[in-house]
Backbone:
């Protein structure tokens, strides 16, 4: 009930201040820089299996870029934003765009859109798929797209030794959306990563999946990364296999982080200052992660936690607002202009993150 009430209040505020244009009154007092987080752009058939919350259409992204430009905003890469904040400045006319995971559509579809609108962005790349290695999440999404959460839960339950987890996998909520949410939570946080990865890989192969072929269809390759880099799009690291870093020991975390860093350095021929945490919630990384990032010389890292970035925001825990096809444009522009932040500072938290 509380969540629904917050959504209703948020929508009312967005309509009042966003749809009417009154949101512009808040811009002069905006206290930080927003970073927007996207994944896939467009709807190429090869990414049909990926969930809708990771996608935004070409038309909607173009509409957003037009609105931002009309409102007087300029786009920055994350490193450009960090440089401006490091000078103690809060640029009122700036916004940073980010795209996670390194999908091929970020080159084929996104790049022409950015060039058309004179915009820049940071693309965070996991490098394992460029070597033909898909992580568990892609096995999960690919299989889920074909057989749904309940059949998948049953297949996995038959392969797992821990009976309480097997029971949970067999008793997912009947609603498909709730069932999928619970299944993903179990696999992400409850099932031992080694067991999860092996089980999902086995089901993926059983249903005809091919790691190397799917990775080649869906992800950037080194040449496409170089093309983005040469076009002025920042390419950042996003680990090798997109694992929950807090679930790994420090040695394994370093392999994941440094592995993607060295891959990108060898492909692009220069330093890589930007990093994004896989999943990006505060519980998805730990103090070891931050120490490793600092030791490796990263100048920034982005989370998936909402909020505006100010000069005092930790450069290794920058905040972002998630955007997809279902995002309401009036609400999004209120985030960008700092309307919701203004209300939060006065005790009314309308954040949906």
Residues:
């Amino acid at each position: 009930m509380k969540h629904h009430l917050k959504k209703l209040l948020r929508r009312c505020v967005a309509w009042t201040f966003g749809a009417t244009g009154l949101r512009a009154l808040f811009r002069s007092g905006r206290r930080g820089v927003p970073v927007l987080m996207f994944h896939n752009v467009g709807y190429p058939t090869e990414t049909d299996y990926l969930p809708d919350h990771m996608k935004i259409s070409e038309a909607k992204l173009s509409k957003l870029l037009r609105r931002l430009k009309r409102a007087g905003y300029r786009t920055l890469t994350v490193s450009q934003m960090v440089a401006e904040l490091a000078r103690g400045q809060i640029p009122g006319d700036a916004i940073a765009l980010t795209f996670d995971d390194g999908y091929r559509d970020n080159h084929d579809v996104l790049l022409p859109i950015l060039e058309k609108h004179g915009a820049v962005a940071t693309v965070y790349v996991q490098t394992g798929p460029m070597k033909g290695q898909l992580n568990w999440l892609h096995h999960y999404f690919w299989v889920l797209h074909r057989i749904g959460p309940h059949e998948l839960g049953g297949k996995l339950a038959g392969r797992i030794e821990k009976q309480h987890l097997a029971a949970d996998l067999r008793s997912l909520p009947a609603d498909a959306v709730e069932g999928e949410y619970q299944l993903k939570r179990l696999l992400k946080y409850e099932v031992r990563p080694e067991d999860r990865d092996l089980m999902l890989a086995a089901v993926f192969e059983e249903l005809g999946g091919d790691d190397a072929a799917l990775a080649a269809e869906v992800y950037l390759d080194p040449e496409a990364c170089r093309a983005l880099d040469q076009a002025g799009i920042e390419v950042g690291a996003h680990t090798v296999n997109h694992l929950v870093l807090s679930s790994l020991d420090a040695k394994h975390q370093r392999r994941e982080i440094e592995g993607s860093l060295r891959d990108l350095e060898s492909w692009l021929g220069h330093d890589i200052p930007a990093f994004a945490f896989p999943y990006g919630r505060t519980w998805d990384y730990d103090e070891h992660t931050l120490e490793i990032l600092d030791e490796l010389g990263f100048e920034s890292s982005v989370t998936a936690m909402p909020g505006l970035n100010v000069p005092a925001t930790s450069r290794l825990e920058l905040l972002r607002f998630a955007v997809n096809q279902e995002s309401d444009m009036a609400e999004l522009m209120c985030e960008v202009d700092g309307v919701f932040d203004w209300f939060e500072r006065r005790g009314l938290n309308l954040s949906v993150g």
User: Anything to note?
Assistant: The chain has a mean pLDDT of 93. The first strand starts at residue 35 and ends at 38. The longest helix spans residues 136-157. The chain has two domains: 33-125+220-344, 136-213.
